[in-house]
Design brief:
alpha+beta; about 40% helix
């Protein structure tokens, strides 16, 4: 019975992703080496399509993949920091035809959502130190950007804390390569649904309680709906990935921060307001507006996210 519930939750979540415009694929249908965490065909397809006008060659597409997968012997945290930067800021590769200038490549198109390939995959076997099968992986252009782990709310002895441990201890130890490209992770039992980074302490995992800024915050089973429609709407996921994931420049410890939903909405509201009042807009009056936030709500981070967007 308990197995049935976890499976039911998993399939319900796959369906919610489909409603957001992701293609659902069962991992057993994906042909790849078990140690491989990328869906290379998706990445190649995206690159060939996106850079068709620049005449990107198959070899150049492989150069992009080589740059993303290069083993530099760094710790997982450092690898995640470096690879994440490549994914969100883009990078240049040498052309096959040496007379051409370097090609600047973005492996995710943050401006045109529809040019990206969004997939939700379950039951995908990955072999590292041990063989593991994550409950859900979100792929954008073949890059595994979110990993989800579900636990059963009906079983008395399991909580989302178990899902947290599964991700941050077991998976991290056994299939670290999967997390090199990771933006954040999700732990869910259907009623409690929270997200954070692989390096976020459990107590800082947070629910995404609103779909739109003006909505009333939701809890419980509704928080699954608000997370799916509020955080995983495709343009939202890209926005969070691009401007709302933060690695402090000088961090003695493994610190990585992903915004909470009030910061996300406040930043977007401020950004729109500034644009509306700026002199780029012919009728702009130059007023930026005032932002009031309670102590401890993360104002400095909200300012940092805003600076990035601007």
């Amino acid at each position: 019975m308990s197995h049935f519930n976890e499976h039911t939750l998993e399939m319900a979540i796959m369906e919610l992703f489909e409603q957001q415009g992701y293609s659902y694929v069962n991992g057993e249908m994906i042909h790849k080496e078990q140690i491989e965490v990328l869906l290379r065909d998706d990445l190649r397809m995206y690159l060939i399509d996106r850079y068709a006008q620049e005449g990107i060659t198959p070899l150049e597409a492989e150069r992009v993949i080589a740059k993303l997968t290069a083993d530099n012997g760094a710790s997982l945290y450092e690898q995640n920091t470096q690879t994440y930067r490549l994914m969100t800021e883009g990078f240049a590769i040498k052309r096959e035809d040496a007379s051409l200038p370097d090609l600047f490549v973005e492996v995710i198109d943050f401006k045109d959502v529809d040019r990206n390939i969004f997939k939700i995959v379950n039951q995908l076997e990955i072999k590292g130190l041990e063989r593991r099968i994550p409950d859900g992986i979100v792929y954008v252009n073949g890059l595994p950007v979110v990993v989800l782990e579900f636990k059963n709310a009906v079983k008395e002895d399991t909580t989302i804390m178990n899902a947290y441990t599964q991700l941050t201890v077991r998976y991290r130890r056994d299939i670290p390569e999967l997390f090199r490209y990771n933006a954040f992770v999700v732990i869910s039992d259907g009623v409690n649904n929270k997200y954070g980074t692989l390096f976020t302490p459990y107590e800082f995992f947070y629910a995404w309680r609103k779909v739109e800024r003006t909505d009333k915050a939701n809890d419980g089973i509704d928080s699954l709906h608000t997370m799916m429609a509020g955080l995983f709407r495709r343009d939202r996921l890209l926005s969070v990935m691009k401007d709302f994931v933060f690695f402090p420049d000088t961090s003695k410890s493994e610190r990585k921060i992903v915004c909470r939903y009030p910061q996300f909405f406040a930043t977007h509201r401020l950004y729109e307001n500034i644009l509306e009042h700026s002199h780029i807009n012919l009728h702009g009056d130059g007023k930026g507006g005032t932002y009031f936030g309670a102590t401890g709500c993360g104002k400095s981070l909200t300012m940092l996210f805003l600076t990035r967007m601007l």
